[in-house]
Amino acid sequence: MAQINARGDTVATKPMFRAAFKKRRCLVLADGYFEWKATGKQKQPYYFHRRDDKPFAFAGLWECWKGPDGPVETCAIITADANELSKPIHNRMPVILPMAACAPWLDTDVENPGMLVELLKPYPADEMECFAVTKMVGNPRNNSPACIERVA
Known about the structure:
The chain has helices at 15-23, 99-106, 113-118, and strands at residues 5-7, 25-30, 33-39, 42-50, 56-67, 70-81, 92-94, 96-97, 128-132. It is an alpha+beta fold.
């Protein structure tokens, strides 16, 4: 079973991700992401994005597996501890790479893996915004601008 997230603090050493970390790094492009805040039995989704609304890249890894019906290509997004904006919602967040870090992240000839690990940190909270959105985001059939509209 493929993992959709990989912890940045163990990705270079954990057997499941070690080989991909060395040679199969990727960027996952996005303009926002959702996290759910649990309050008792209730859960409220929040939309996170850059304050300037520009798209960004998550640090990711890809893998190709031999499945029963042929090759299966998967990817995982790397996570870090939450920044100050994210902490009240969730204890982890995806690693958003600054533009200057994208080329080094993709460079398969990097000789210092420690330099890559240093890239796997929380994105600055003051450059992000989040707000509550409708629970319709929990259903993948819902794909409309209404998914990222603020709710009270």
